[in-house]
Amino acid sequence: MPDIDRRTALTATGLAGLGLALPADALAQTANSLDARKPGLPLKSGHLHMGTGAGPQGRIGITNLYLTRDDRPWLPVMGEFHFTRFPSEYWEEELLKMKAAGVGIVASYVLWNHVELAPGTLDWTGDRDIGRFVRLCQKHGLLFFLRPGPWGHAEARFGGIPDWIAGSTRTRSNDPAYMAQVERFWRGLHDQLGGLMWKDGGPIIGMQVENEYNLGGPGQGREHIAALKALALRIGFDVPLYTVTGWDQTVYPKGEVVPVHGGYPDEPWSAKTVKLPPKENYLFRFDSRVSGDLGAQTRGGRRGDADSDMEDTPFLGAEYGGGVPVMYRRRPLLQPADVAAAVTTQVGSGVNLLGYYMFHGGANPMANGRMLEETQRSGGYNDCPAIAYDFQAPIGQYGEVNPVSAALRPLHYFLAAYGETLAPMTVHAPAVLPADKDDLKTLRWAVRAKGDTGFLFVNNHVRQYGTAAHPGTQFNVTLAGGAVRLPSRPVTIAPGDNFFWPIGMDLDGVRLDWATAQPVTRIADSDGPIHVMAACLPGPVELAFPAGTKVDAPARSEGGRVIVQVPPSATRPVRVTGADGRSVRLLLIERDAAKRIWVGEIGGERRVVLSAADVLFGPNGLELRQRGEARFAWQILPGKAAMMTAKATGLAPLPFSQTREAGTAPPIEIGGPAKAAMQPLPEAHKAAAAFSFTIPKDVLAEGGDAFLEIDWRGDIGRLFDGPDMLDDAYWDGRVWRIGLKRFAARLGRPWTLTVMPLRADAPIYLDDAARAKLPPGEQVATLEVLRIVPEYRLEVKA
Length: 798
What we know:
CATH topology of the domain at 54-419: TIM Barrel
Number of helices: 11
CATH superfamily of the domain at 54-419: Glycosidases
Helix content: 10-25%
Largest sheet: 8 strands, parallel, barrel
Radius of gyration: 27 Å
CATH architecture of the domain at 54-419: Alpha-Beta Barrel
Strand order of the largest sheet: 7-8-9-10-11-12-13-15
């Protein structure tokens, strides 16, 4: 828990009241000043009752400040991917995509009603084969975090609990009938995971107990979480870490489990149909880890336990939104910066496990013809698509790598390379803080520091809201070793900027006093180490070194330092030699190039690749993939760029015919637990327009994919092959994209798209950009264009 001296931390409102007493330059200096000398909490370990941390692969542990691996600070990236929501024949390539994006731990719910399709029978075959999924993680060096509920939410029917158990027991309590069913489920799960616990040499390092649990009453509350953990241990789930979600008034037995946290850029579960106020995720945190509404299905009647547990537990994340779902009554569309700014701000606030929900989208399975999605009519708080679970995630429902992945990867690679340094650092607040989350004028920044080294985090992006520009900005930071003002000349922090800079960074024995670039990763070749950094602002990058440092670039001496202005270049490393003769190279890439960066291993060596294509790393080279673009360009740093064009098939419009005109959509019903818009009953879809088309069998290249793109307007779209529904979507303004390789056996026969009309008076939230696409009129149900977009692949030997 960061110790903040509130006598020196003012809000912007409080500072304004002093404005007449301070000259303008003193006011600006105070506003951008920060004292990082105050020590953090003392480190302690052994006080948390976790499982066996030692195994053949080393030791995983936990302190009150951070996780450890082989007794060293460890700050991993964890991404959620639900194995039961994706075809098992493609699991391996999807895990490789996650690894290439910098994810080191794969987390997954085990949704009970996804594996118990009939009462009393657990089915672990096919897409439900968790043992195979975890072994694939192990094969590719990925760790695994188990989230077996028994109640998981996950926008699933009854939170994943089978109907017959939900209807015959007192769920989420110590009711003996319920606990007996949980034991049966968990024992069946454990049977699938033999030899895969960390202590046995497997990748399973943790287990989350329950989810969003804030219930009280007989057999509930902390005693239920304790009973679930005791059951897990009795069955044999002996893992290094046991967690619970820590938001929405969660209660748990302290010391037995560790809270994990989260936050989302929007709230699709909200009943409001207007733009929401600024989210607190874009503010740095100094005295609480608990975000606001994260969509829990229940509400506690008291304060949760997580905030009062901050001195004894590290700041761990499990559900920082890699996206958000599109729900019936609220359909927010995220931009990559909405996600990247929020998570970078939370890392700057002290997060020491960056866990995403979701990192990989998917599709809901069916249970013997029954739908398994959350709906208000089944008692849930939300209406969700029956099949689609894309989540606007970095990797989508059909395995497509989305632009948000590019916005996040540089942070992930940084944590892999430098997380050991960052994890022990204490969070410090500036002298002037924003008045609240609605304050869009005061600059938002913080420093994580230890001794005379640290990282300065800045966020000037808030989803859907304009922030002020900050010209003439310098930062005055006092570390244990002295004060530093950076950069040497004022810069402008523009609206939308979000980054972090190193201060006093150790570059293999060479000290970097500061840089106006964000560290990304460290690689090495026969000539020694190379630290890769990405420019954060337009123009040259400023580097500052102690006096006596030699830099092979034009430099000046100022204030006892060597100051260098270096134009970013992916081909020209800058060599820096310290006063003691130790030498290192810096490779500074442009900030737009950072969106094309990939880091992975080729032939056992860590390599950096720049490419707009999706990149998968293999033992002998790369596989590049692109949708709709046959010309590939890539660069393996610090080498030269290369280009090649694959055989192109071109984009193909797909003919279609309208087979049924839309009827009049009925008024949208208001009701359910949220007392908000409810999706239409199935019989209402008789008012849907219908369109027929046939996709040729030959659209799929050997081993590759192609995507059907549907440009449409309406309320609900559903895609059928005969009576079988293949996918569905709520219209949100995006083109609906559907991967075809999983439907290969269905190609060549007519498919039907139905479009439920969207009423002009629908009490549904749409972003402004989406609403602008709607034509005038009482309702709309149109299909504008169908396209087939090929996926091109290229193998590169390296």
